[in-house]
Amino acid sequence: MDTDGLFSLAQPGFGPAAPSGPAGVETAGFGAAAADAPLPVRMRPASLDELVGQQHLLAPGAPLRQLVTGSSPMSVILWGPPGTGKTTIAHLVAHATDRKFVAMSALTAGVKDVRAVIETARRARRSGGPPTVLFIDEVHRFSKTQQDSLLAAVEDRTVTLLAATTENPYFSVISPLLSRCVLLTLQALQEEDVRGLIRRAVADHRGLGGAVSLSPEAETHLVRLAAGDVRKALTALEAAAGSATAQGAKVIDLATAERAVDVAAVRYDRDGDAHYDVTSAFIKSMRGSDPDAALHYLARMLVAGEDPRFIARRIVIFSSEDVGMADPQALLVATAAAQAVQLIGMPEAQLNLAQAVVHMATAPKSNSVTTAIGAAIADVRAGRGGAVPSPLRDAHYSGSRGLGHGLGYRYPHDDPRGVVRQQYVPDDLVGTDYYRPSEHGAERAVGERVPRLRRIVRGLGARPGESRPVAASASGANRAAGGAAASDASQSSADLEQTGTTGSGPQGSGPVEPAASGEAGTPAGEPGRVVETADEGVPDTAADHPVTVTGSGTAAAGPDAEDDVMRSERSDKSGVAAGKEQP
After folding, report:
1. Which of 180, 209, 382, 504 is spaced 20 to 30 Å from 22 by Cα?
2. Do residue 99 and residue 179 come from a single domain?
3. Is 450 exposed, middle or buried (0-12, 13-18, 19+ CB in 10 A)?
4. Which residues pair with 28 in a beta bridge?
5. Nearest residue to 104 (alpha-carbon basis) of 70, 78, 142
6. 371 assigned to some structural domain
C-alpha cells in the first residue's frame, strides 16, 4: 500500500522495505523520507522535542508523552484538524520503541485486513514477540462493523490502537471503541508555531537548506494562508521556493509567494489597524443596510484567517445593538449562527455566518434597546434610584409580612387586561421613560402599545383628543367581579387594538370607561357611544368622562381611581389568603 507517499515501507537504517502484509496494511514502520519526498514529509520531527504546538499534551506524564515513549500501552484516538501533527505522532511512536508498528488507512482497508493484523499480533504475543501498535488513519471512515472488529483486541491489548481522525469522534466512532481509548484533542497550530516551522524548513538541511531566503511579507502571507495547518504552509513554501529558483532569485518575496499559490495576500493584521478597520467597516456596513459590503468584509476576515468565533460574537452583539426590537428574530438568527460555528466549524460555518450577516444588513434597524440600557445605567451610576417599593419586595420568608413586604402588591394576572395600576420604580424615578420605541419594523407595534401600558401602570388619563371606543361584550362584562358589568379592566390591550380608535391621538385609545354610578346598561346590540376626553395626565373619573358600556350584563358604576383601589383591596385580601405575594 502507498498512502499518498506518507507511509514508507523501509525502516530507517534497515535497508530494503520489509514485506507487506494483507492488502491495505504495512507491516513495517514508517521509514526515513526520501530526498525527493514532499517538504512536509521531509520536515517531520525526528523526536518528541521537535514537535511544535500541542503543549497541553506534552507535559511530563501526559498521555501523549507516555504513548510516544512506550511507557504505557494505552490505546489512543487523536482528534484534530488537518496539519496538526496526527501522522507525525504516529511516526514518533513507530520510531521510539521496539514495538511492532502496523499502519493502515480506513480508505483502503476492510474487516478482513483488520482481522488479519489482529491474528498476527495474537500469535506474536503468544510466542513472546514484541507488542503490536496498530495505526489507523481516518478511522472515522470505518463502518460500524469494521470498528466492532477492533473491540476485543483493544480490550485485551492484543494490539495497542493508535487512531487518527479529523471528525468529531463522538459522532464518528462507536461508543464501545471510544470508551476503550484515551481521546487526545489536537488544536490548530498558533501563528507563531507555524512561523517557526517555516523558518526551520528554510534553514534545515532536510528542507531548503538555506538555498533561498524568505522575505518577512512573504512569510506572513504563508502563515496566514496556512490557518493553523502546517502541512499547507510547508507545501506553499516549497511551491514558492521552486518558483523563485526557476527565476534565478535567491529571495522569495511577496509577489513570488502570491504567484506560487495563486492566492492574493490579504492586508489584514489581527493585532493591528487592519483588523480594527475591517471589523469597523463590517459592522457599519450591516448598520447601513448594505448586505453586499457586509459580505465583502466578512469574506476578507475569513480569507485572512480571522477567528470565526470573533465574527460570530460581533454579529450577536449587533443583533441587539443595532437591530433590537425592530426585528426580535435577529438575535435568534445571530445566536444560532454562533452555535453553528461551534458545532460545525470552518469552512462550512461560513455559510451560517453569511446568512446571519445578510439578515442583519437587511433587517429594520433600531438602537432603542442600546439607548435605553445606556440611560438606565447612567442614572444608576449617578445615584438615582431609591428603595424598592414595599409591595414589590420579597415576601416569601417568615416575618416579611411584618416588615410590610408584599403588602399592597397587585397581581397583574388577576386583571383581565394583565396590566394594573402599580408603582414599580423607586420614588425618585417615577415618570422616567428609558425605552423609546422607534417606528421601524416590528417595533412600530410595540411603540403603539407602550404608551397605553404606561398610562395604565401609572394611572394616567387619556391623552388630549383621544377617543374611547366602547365595545365591551357580554363575555367581557361577565369577567368583572361579582357578575357586574366590567369596568376598564374588562378589555385587554389586545381587545383595544382590535376595536381600533378614532381621534387625533397618535398612540391609540386609553382604557374603556365604565358607566357612571346608577346608570343603566345599554341594551344588548345597541351601538356604543364614543365620548372624547380632554384632560391629560389626570386620573379619569365618571364625572369627567361619562361613557356608557354596551352589553347584555348589568351596568356597574365606578371611576377608574376608585375601581383601582377596590381591585387593589381585593388583590391584597386574596393575596393574603392564597399567598399570592410574589417574591
Report:
1. 180
2. yes
3. middle
4. none
5. 142
6. no
The pLDDT tens digits for 393-444 are 888 787 777 788 888 888 889 888 888 888 888 888 888 888 888 888 888 8
- Note whether 45 and 174 are same-domain residues: yes
Q: What was the pLDDT predicted at 265? A: 53
Q: Which residues contact 382 (CB under 8 A, 6 or more apart)?
A: none
* CB-count exposure of residue 153 (10 Å: 0-12, 13-18, 19+): buried
DSSP-derived secondary structure letter, 97: S
Which 3-state string (H, E, C) describes 392-452?
HCCCCCCCCHHHCCCCCCCCHHHCCCCCCCCCCCCHHHCCCCCCCCCCCCCHHHHHHHHHH
**Residue 582, C-beta contacts closer than 8 angstroms, at least 6 positions apart:** 395, 406, 409, 411
Q: What is the mean pLDDT of residues 338-362?
A: 91
CATH code of the domain in which 336 resides: 1.20.272.10
Q: How far apart are CA 522 and CA 413, in angstroms?
A: 28
What's the burial of 357, exposed, middle or buried (CB within 10 Å: 0-12/13-18/19+)? buried
Taking the C-alpha atoms of residue 391 and residue 290, their distance in angstroms, rounded to an integer, is 49
User: Which among 226, 250, 269 is the end of a domain?
Assistant: 269
Give me the domain span that covers residue 111.
25-185
* Rounded Cα–Cα distance for residues 550 and 560 (Å): 18
248, three cell numbers: 534565478
341 in Cβ contact with 349 (< 8 Å)? yes
Task: Give the tens place of pLDDT for each residue, 515-530.
Answer: 333 333 333 333 333 3
β-strands 251-252, 76-79 pairing: unpaired
**Domain end position, chosen among 409, 437, 458:** 458
State the pLDDT confidence band at 548, using cuts at 50, 70 and 90.
very low
| Identity of the residue numbered 208 | L
Quote the pTM value.
0.45
C-alpha cell at 421: 395600576
Residues 36 and 181 in one domain: yes
44 lies in the same domain as 122: yes
| Same structural domain, 222 and 177 | no
What CATH number does the domain containing 439 carry?
1.10.3710.10
Is residue 544, in this structure, part of any structural domain at all? no
Provide the strand spans (E) within 276-326: none
Q: How many domains does the chain have?
A: 4
**What 3 state SS string does 101-132 have?**
EEEEECCCCCHHHHHHHHHHHHHHHHCCCCCE
Helices (H), 127-214: 144-148, 151-155, 169-172, 175-179, 191-203
The answer to whether residues 133 and 89 belong to one domain is yes
Give me the phi and psi of 184, to 5 degrees please: -115, 125
Asked whether 134 and 94 are in contact (CB, 8 A), the reply is no
Structural domain includes residue 372: no
Domain of residue 98, CATH code: 3.40.50.300
Q: For residue 162, list its beta bridge partners.
A: 76, 135
> In the block, which residue shows the cell 482481522?
115
Q: Are residues 30 and 175 in the same domain?
A: yes
Do the domain assignments include residue 47? Answer: yes
